[in-house]
Amino acid sequence: MQPMNFSNLFSTVNTKEVLTNLPDAVFIVEEDGTVSWVNNRALSLFGVDRASILGVNFEDIVVDGINLAEKSHVRKTSIVTGAITPSNREFFVEINAKRYGMQYFVTLRDTTNMTSILSQSEKTGQMNKEKNLLLYKLSGDFTSPLQSIVGFSQAMIDSVKEESLTAKQEKYLQIINKNSKELLDYLENFFDFSFVESSAFKIKRRIFDIAMMVQNTCREYELNLKGKKLAFTVDVENLKSKTIFSDESAIRLALQKIINLSLMLTEAGVISIEVSTPEMIDIQSSGVYRYVNEENSDYVKIKIKDTGMGISSTEMKNIFNPYALMESSNKKAIAHSVMMSTVKYIINKLGGVIKMSSEIMKGSTFTILLPIAKDKDIDNE
Q: Which domain holds residue 263?
């Protein structure tokens, strides 16, 4: 059977009618690399007339052209490479190719602007990661003095009964202690947010007991419950397997952020934490579905619910996007969004999803769904 000859094919077809309006440059390239036919868009892309481009070697105008055309044909995908005009103008093109017999049917699209944008975006992203890494490394220099102020002012408050302080001095101490605590909390949340967005944040999965981790994390907050009519409850009854494969430190940090937010919003009542094996319908509707065993134990669901004052619907619109609140004067909303953005980033890096709902004077609910089984497609990052 004779191979199809596209040059002969186009000699019998109105090529202008078929190809003039195509946005891509079209080339017919012989197996040895010789350009045997081009459309009008190809002429304008390279700034040449038809006579000067026909017969040239494709690799003289497209870097590694024949090799990439073959790769595009085999892989059935586009490839970005460099191109050069006779006037030595260099630019980027996206190449798609299909081989028919001894010829390649090749389309080229100028992607110089898009490639430059992506390159600049990549550089900007790397710069942001480096800035976040710098902030993370300097975080101790910012928080250590504040921790000293909080500690010493609290010690003075605790010893007020034994000291001859005036009511005004005691009031000033209370203000210093309160404001320094709030500033310390804000800075720690900000630095944690910078940390998870920096190159220093790596996911390190291992096997651990999630039930024990959650219970131990809750015990860390016993002092925070003093002076509040507030209790923690932890329910792991519906968890089929307490042993999971994930990043314990990352999940703990996410859990701490949610608990901290709940404590800010809740003066009395209950903060309940339920760790369970999710139903199949929850897995499939969440967007994290990849694989599942008969007991659905390849996933874990963590649900935190409080009885606090809740968050308004206006604030909820940007609860995972602090950058949208840059012009906002509501500092509490910014702090809440920084905390929840940290949580969302962590959970997403773990391959999971988080959802939050809240209602004024009724409380908030945070639901996390995570894949937690060893899988060949999940490696430490």
A: 206-371
